[in-house]
Design a protein that fits this description.
With 610 residues, this protein is an alpha+beta fold. The protein folds into four domains: 4-107, no CATH class; 113-252, 2-Layer Sandwich (Beta-Lactamase); 282-438, Beta-Lactamase (2-Layer Sandwich); 442-604, Reverse transcriptase/Diguanylate cyclase domain (Alpha-Beta Plaits). Helix content is 48%, strand content 18%. It contains 15 helices and 16 strands. The strands form three sheets. Strands 8-7-6-11-10-9 form a six-stranded antiparallel β-sheet. Helix 1 packs antiparallel against helix 2 (60-112). The longest helix has 53 residues, at 60-112. Residues 1-28 and 217-226 have low confidence and may be disordered.
Length: 610
């Protein structure tokens, strides 16, 4: 017979089950350990009783009743112990809630008090500071954290200050003394300091109170004032809870800064990607530069970003800008001041940048003329990043901040440096494109426009004058007896002759919209927008007279010198008229000049619009 065979007989006497799950099951809770030990002992005792029951010769029913009775006593003791553990845990919960409330109360009080309050570690570095201290020292509260309080002590008072700290006993005693602190502006602030050691979870810190004094008194060592036990305990609690609160705030702030840095990096990478794509896809340098400065100004939140171009005559031109509308535009302004010293030029030529937080501070080494120019434009802070082309300075990316002084963090300097590289690539790409485009439009021998560009430009001007209903002129010219000239003097001399005529025409057709082109082998043309017949005839006469003065020899010509035959036409293109009519009229005039004996001008103007 065993204990299991009699389980049904004693089932009505079974004690209630005890649930030991939840917060009490933690092995770190001492009272729970005691409870678990009691359960283990009870189970061991029950096992022993069961073993005794199996070996007893007494009546099984009497033995089972004895065992059940003793087990009931054990269970009752366990239930009493469990209730005691529960009450202790509830007391701990209440105490934790009160501590959290006190932490919130003391943290609010720390920021509320009008005296400057702070905590430093054993080396004097500030770990916590309230807003009142920032107002006393003329620095924002976050900027104080990480500084040393000794940095605000004048040089002559540092030994006395350090001596006071060394003599501070590491006990629950407050030490007071009067001294002077030096503000970042250089002014002196007489203060009274109260300091004591405070024990916190991570070690020990110094707790300080800083009170302003209306008049300066020499530093002294008064006896520490009397503090009641209650005040001391309150102050210790305040220090401990403030330290916990500050640690939590530091962790939150560190996470916020990390998230902000990641977001900023993502925005910068996106901006660089956008600009790089724009550089690859666009050959219009003005569009690239305009979009670049606009997006950079928005990202950095500054008052002006511009591209400053260095020109060959020593001037600096504002090629493009993006600005806050509050401040005047500098676009297209040119500066002639020798603002860049030789050592500065070398610094920029090597890719160096210049970040100025405030141009008005004494330690800023800027050329006086540059400082005056910046003052004129209300600039307080600036960042200069060179744009290099083959190790030479093409210009600069310049960021202006006008509202106030402004620091330039490393990530902003790196961003503008990378942007300057993209701008440099865009400039090179645009220059190559413009050169390729120019070469595609230029006659290789004479270096004036070729026939392809002549046809394209003539069609453009024709449509424009049709729209505006204004006169345009066309001059066609041909070198007289040029084949005989080539046969007599050879092709190199013929090439020289063609270049000479091209230079002569280009020199006397000078307006920005005029175009001189090589029309054929020895034929040249000039497009003269907004020109009537008299004006075009005058230009043709000037060309003939200056060619005659050159007296270029041509022994196969009747006049023994090089001459031109010229046909001139001027008309107002009628809407819907064909361009071929203009060319045909000029060609007929040229043919008439050659038929009439050459070395002359035939001008023709239609009687009505074509």
């Amino acid at each position: 017979m065993n204990c299991q065979e009699n389980a049904s007989d004693a089932e009505h006497q079974r004690p209630p089950s005890i649930d030991i799950k939840g917060p009490f099951a933690s092995p770190n809770f001492p009272e729970m350990k005691k409870f678990e030990q009691s359960v283990s002992l009870a189970m061991a005792r029950a096992a022993a009783l069961c073993q005794a029951f199996q070996t007893q010769t007494l009546s099984p029913k009497a033995t089972l009743a004895t065992i059940v009775e003793e087990l009931q006593v054990i269970v009752e003791k366990l239930q009493a112990t469990y209730q005691d553990v529960w009450m202790q845990q509830a007391t701990l919960w209440d105490r934790q809630e009160r501590i959290l409330q006190e932490n919130e109360r003391y943290s609010s009080f720390f920021q509320f008090i009008t005296e400057g309050a702070l905590f430093t570690n054993g080396e004097g570095l500030i770990t916590v500071a309230n807003e009142a201290l920032g107002q006393l020292l003329n620095l924002p509260e976050p900027a104080l954290v990480g500084l040393s309080l000794l940095d605000f002590v004048p040089l002559e008072l540092k030994p006395e200050f350090q001596s006071q700290l060394r003599s501070l006993p590491q006990q629950k005693v407050i030490k007071n003394w009067d001294t002077v602190l030096q503000l970042p502006s250089g002014d002196f602030l007489p203060v009274r300091l109260n300091v004591k050691w405070c024990l916190i979870a991570s070690g020990e810190e110094l707790c300080w109170l800083v009170r302003d004094r209306p008049q300066y008194r020499p530093p002294s060592n008064p006896l520490p004032p009397y503090q009641s036990q209650e005040d001391q305990e309150l102050q210790q609690s305040t220090v401990a809870l403030t330290a916990i609160n500050q640690q939590l705030r530091n962790e939150v702030e560190a996470r916020r800064r990390a998230e902000h840095a990641l977001q900023l990096q993502a925005r910068q990478d996106q901006l660089l990607h956008t600009i790089a794509n724009r550089v690859r896809s666009s050959l219009e340098i003005d569009q690239v530069l305009t979009a670049t400065v606009s997006e950079v100004r928005q990202l950095l939140d500054v008052d002006r970003v511009m591209i400053l171009q260095f020109r060959g005559d020593g001037t600096k031109l504002v090629a493009t800008e993006s600005r806050n509308k509050v401040y005047p535009s500098l676009l297209a302004k040119s500066y002639r001041e020798p603002c860049f010293q030789p050592h500065s030029i070398d610094h920029y030529r090597q890719g160096g940048v210049r970040a100025i937080e405030d141009i008005l501070t004494d330690d800023v080494q800027l050329h006086p003329c540059l400082v005056e120019t910046l003052k004129t434009h209300n600039v307080r802070a600036l960042l200069l990043v060179p744009i290099l082309q083959q190790d030479e300075i093409w210009g600069m990316v310049v960021a202006h901040h006008c509202r106030a002084p402004r620091p330039w963090p490393d990530h902003e300097q790196i961003l503008l440096t990378r942007l300057a590289t993209q701008v440099s690539i865009a400039i090179q790409q645009s220059a190559l494109y413009q050169e390729t485009r120019r070469l595609s439009r230029v006659d290789r021998l004479t270096q004036i426009a070729n026939r392809g560009w002549f046809d394209e430009y003539l069609e453009k001007m024709w449509k424009q004058h049709q729209r505006d209903q204004t006169p345009m002129a066309l001059i066609l010219s041909d070198i007289d007896y040029f084949k005989a000239y080539n046969d007599t003097y050879g092709h190199p001399a013929g090439d020289y002759c063609l270049r000479t005529i091209a230079e002569l025409l280009d020199r006397h057709v000078q307006r920005p919209n005029d175009l001189v082109a090589r029309y054929g082998g020895e034929e040249f043309a000039a497009i003269l927008p907004n020109t009537n017949l008299a004006g075009a005839h005058h230009i043709a006469e000037t060309i003939l007279k200056n060619l005659s003065r050159l007296r270029l020899p041509h022994r196969e010509s009747p006049l023994k010198i090089l001459t031109l035959s010229i046909g001139v036409i001027s008309l107002v293109p009628a809407v819907g008229a064909e361009l071929e009519g203009l060319i045909r009229g000029a060609d007929q005039a040229l043919y008439q000049a050659k038929a009439n004996g050459r070395n002359q001008i035939i001008a023709w103007q239609p009687s009505k619009k074509w």
